[in-house]
Amino acid sequence: MHSIASVKSASGAAKYFTKDDFVSGEYYTDEKAGDVSMWGGEGATAAGLTGTVSQEAFAKALSGELPSGEKVEVRDGRRPGFDLTFSAPKSVSVMAYIAGDKRILGPDGAQTKAVQQTMAWVEKNIAAGRITKDGKTETVKTGNLVYALFQHDTSRALDPQAHIHAIVANMTQMPDGKWQALDAQKLWASNTVIGSIYHSFLRNELEKLGYQTRMDGKHGTFEIVGVPKAVLEVFSQRREQIMEKAAELGIVSPKGRDGVTVNTRDPKLNVEDRDGLVLDWMAKAAEQGFDGKKLLEGALENAAKAEQRENAGP
86 with 162: CB under 8 angstroms? Predict the structure, then answer.
């Protein structure tokens, strides 16, 4: 699944994405960010933004300020940036967190690789700025973006949900070297296409890891073969319960649904206890007779055989 949203506040986004709170929405500190956050994009490289994302540098980028001190012209109503969220299929999260396949997550994992490949496509095909000459405004492709990746683990309903936020700063470097705001019209219009491309890249990466996949729904969505439907449903019920309760109370706003989420959580769950949440997920899967270990063993074996064939040559 893929979605796009506007970043409304530079300072708010910086606090939201660079703090360490596993589930409440303020996620990762600088101490842990080496595994879960990184700069990306040709624009970021040109601006000197590399490695782990610090709160200060992130806030400045969203405010239109580069490490050099150069500032993008800020006009009234300018969006600080855009949040492209890439959520892996439920079966992928199950294999990552419940079966413990460490090849899926992390800076070198299948999920990160798929998002990086997708963002490279976005950068090449969509990144653009506008120039006005002789009273005429035209869109010019730039081929560069400044974005930060943040890897998160759960849905707001506390179900396992591997997803990465690609926070794109509202800036791009024009052919003449000047930095200015993005022309984001095509970015918004390409939401479905971007989602399909992401699913294609992720599916390819998972098949390299030895998994078989099956198509499941529109726009290239898929699931891993071998993860029972009952297990997928177990980790979808919580969201359904929240939506039903919100409808019962007449709540329609996302903020209102967040309140329902918090107020209806299982009191036995400590939302700050990551290990406890994972154990709870494992227990729920075990109730369905699934721990993912055999499926993981098979995938590892398939990947090893594929590597042997590749090394053997023609």
Answer: no
* CA-CA-CA-CA dihedral for 130, 117, 12, 162, to nearest 10: 150
Q: What is the DSSP letter of 99?
A: S
For residue 17, give the 3-state DSSP assignment.
helix
Reported as a single tens digit per residue, the pLDDT across 212-253 is 999 988 888 999 999 999 999 998 866 666 677 667 777 766
C-alpha to C-alpha distance for 72 and 257, rounded to whole angstroms: 36
Whether 269 is in a domain gets the answer no
Section 109-121 average pLDDT: 97
CA separation, residue 79 to residues 20, 52, 53, 83, 296 (Å): 25, 24, 20, 11, 43
Q: Domain tally for the chain?
A: 1
What residues make up the domain containing 75? Answer: 2-226
C-alpha R_g of the chain? 21
Kindly report, residue by residue over 4-14, the tens digit of the pLDDT: 888 877 766 66
pLDDT per residue as tens digits for the range 150-194: 988 877 677 888 999 999 999 999 999 999 999 999 999 999 999
- Dist CA 119 CA 296 (whole Å): 28
Cβ count within 10 A of residue 257:
19
pLDDT of residue 81: 92
15 within some domain: yes
DSSP strand E in the chain: where?
2-7, 37-40, 81-87, 128-133, 136-141, 147-154, 160-169, 172-173, 179-180, 213-215, 222-224
Q: Is 235 helix (H, G, I), strand (E, B) or coil?
A: coil
Q: Are 67 and 48 in contact (CB under 8 A)?
A: yes
Q: Which of 178-187, 260-269, 284-293, 303-312 has the lowest mean pLDDT?
A: 260-269
Angle between helical axes of 55-62 and 10-17 (0-180°, round to 10): 150
CATH number at residue 20: 3.30.930.30
Give the ranges where 98-179 is alpha helix by DSSP (H). 110-125
Buried b (16+ CB within 10 A) or exposed e, 211-244: bebeeeeebbebbbebbeeebbebbeebbeebee
